[in-house]
Batch of 3 targets.
Target 1
Amino acid sequence: MPIVPSELIEVRRISGKGRGVFARQLIPAGMVIEIAPVLVVPEDDMETTELAGHCFLWSEGKVGLPLGYGALYNHSYDPNAEYLDRTPQTKVYRAVRDIAAGEEITINYNGTPNDRSPVGFDVRE
C-alpha cells in the first residue's frame, strides 16, 4: 500500500530496491519536492542500526539522517532530482528536470547530479 505524504509524492515498494519516492503528478523542473529537517548524530551511534543505510555523511565523525521521506529517495547516476543543504540541518529536494506522474524520484547520492563516483554498493537502474 502506498504511503501518501502530500499531493505531490508518495512512497511505494519497489521489487529489488525496497522503498522509493514517486511523483503523484507532474513535477516541473526546478520545483521543490520536499524540505527535510536532518538529525545529525555521531557516526558510531548509527553503524550497528538499520538506519545507517539511510544516512548522509555529514562532517568528521557525524552522519545526517533526513526526516520526512528524505532517507527514501533511491540513487541514480541519471537522477531527476537533487538535494541541497538549505541550512546546517535541512535538506531541500528539488526536480532537476520534469518528472512525470508515476515516475520514481531519484537523486545522485554523491551530491551532484552528474557525479559518476562509486557510491559503495551495486547500482540497479
Target 2
Amino acid sequence: MADPIKLLIVDDNEDILSTFYEFFNSMGYEVKTAVDGFAALKLLREKSSFFDCLITDLVMPNISGVGLISIVKKEYTHLKIIAMTGYGDQPGALASEAEADVVLFKPIDLFKIENTVSELLNSKDDNE
C-alpha cells in the first residue's frame, strides 16, 4: 500500500482547520495543521520532506498566505500548493503571483478540494 498523502493545512479559522482535518483524516490522508504562516513555517522547517501538499488560507495574521507561498516556493520546491481565499479577486491574484499551484475561493466544497489535491499530486508523479 502506498504511503498516505501528507498535508499541511493552514488557516487562522479554527473551525475551518478542524473541519479540514477531520475530512482529510477520514479520507486516509496524514494531516498537520497550523493557525498561521509562522506556525506553518515552523512545522516545515522541522519536517520539510514530510509534506506533499500545502493548503493555505491567504488572509492571515503574522505571515500571510501569500508570504508563506513565496517562502515555500523558494525553500520547499517539491511541495504542491493550494491557496484558499474568501476575499474576492485581489488575494487570488496575489496567490497566482506567488505561484500557488491552484487558487480556490471559499466556501470550498471539501470533495472538490480533495479532488484538486489528488490531481495535483498525480500530475507531479507524471512529471518525475
Target 3
Amino acid sequence: MTETVSITIDGQAIQARAGQSILEAATAAGIKIPALCHHPALKPIGACRVCLVDIAFERALHPACTYEVRQGIEVHTRSPKAEEARRFALELILSDHPLDCMTCERTGSCELQDLAYQYGIKESQFPGTQHEYALDTSNPFYERDYEKCILCRRCVRTCDEINGVEAIAVIQRGWDSKIGTAFDGIMQDSPCEFCGMCVEVCPTAALQPRLGKQQGRAWEVEKVATTCPYCGVGCQFYLKVKDGRILGVASKWDAPANHGWTCVKGRYGWDFVHHPERLTQPLIRREKGGELEEAGWDEALDLVAQRFKAIVKDHGPQAFGTLASAKCTNEENFAMQKFSRAVIGTNNVDHCARL
C-alpha cells in the first residue's frame, strides 16, 4: 500500500504520495506551478529556478520539482518572495533571448513566451551583451537556433534518459556554455539517431522541425492520434494536421507501446503522404498485356481474388506464396499468414526482414 502524507499548498489540504515532489503533488491536485526545465518524462534537476516555492519555516526558497513532500509541510507557490524570485529568473533568461515572437515559429506553443505573458514581462531589466549564434541548418530534419536556447538541458536529458544515445551535452563553460556535440561538430558526425525527441521536449524554438515550417501556427493545427505505419511495434503519436496536410508529429506520452518515444521515420518520414507521384487509386490491367488503368477497390480486389483462384486451380496451393513486411503491424502479418494457410492451403510464408 502506497504511503500518503498530508500537506498544504496555497491553503488547500492535499493527500500526496510519499516520494512525490511538490510539483508532482501540486499538478495532481490541479495547482499550476510554473516551470521550464521540468518535463514529466524526465528526471528533475531544478535548473531553471522558475518553480521556486516558499515553504513555511524554511529560510530559503526551494525548487518544487526536486523537493520531496513531507508530512505537514505548508507550501506557498504565489507568495511575494516566490513571485519576485520567479520574475527575476525569467528576466535573466530573457536578457539573452531574442524577442522576435511575431515571426518565431513557436509563437503560441512556446513555454517561455507563455510565462513572459503571465508575468507581464515585455523586456528584461538586465540589458547587455547577447550571444550571436548562426542558425544551424546543416541537417535535413530540424534547425538549431542557439540564440533561443535557455540551457534547460531537457534535450540533453532526453537523449540520455529516453534514447540512451548521449549525442549531446553542455559544452564549454560560463558565458560560452551551449548545447552541442563532442568538439562542437555537426549532428551528422555525432551518435545522433535523429529520433527528434530533443525537438519534442524543447520549450522554445531552439530546436525546430523543418517539416511544416511556416505552414501553420499552433492554434491552427489539429492533433490527430494515429499508429505509425513504418513497422509492427505499434507506436502511437499525434499528427499535426492543417487543411488536410500533415505538418509534423507530436509525442503521445500515454501511448502503451512507445510512451511518447519515436524513431526518425516516425517523427519525420511524412513527405510521402503528399508526394505528387503517390498512388491514390488501385491500378489494374483489364486485358492481358494492356496498360495499367485506375480502378475502384472492389474491382481491384475482385480481380486479385480471381487470379488467386486460378493459380490454385491450375498449379495447386504450393505454387502460391506470401511475403510479409516489417512495415505491417503484427496483426496484419498474422492475418496474412492465416490467409495463406487456412484459405489458400500453403505454408509458403516468408518475411522481408529475413532477406
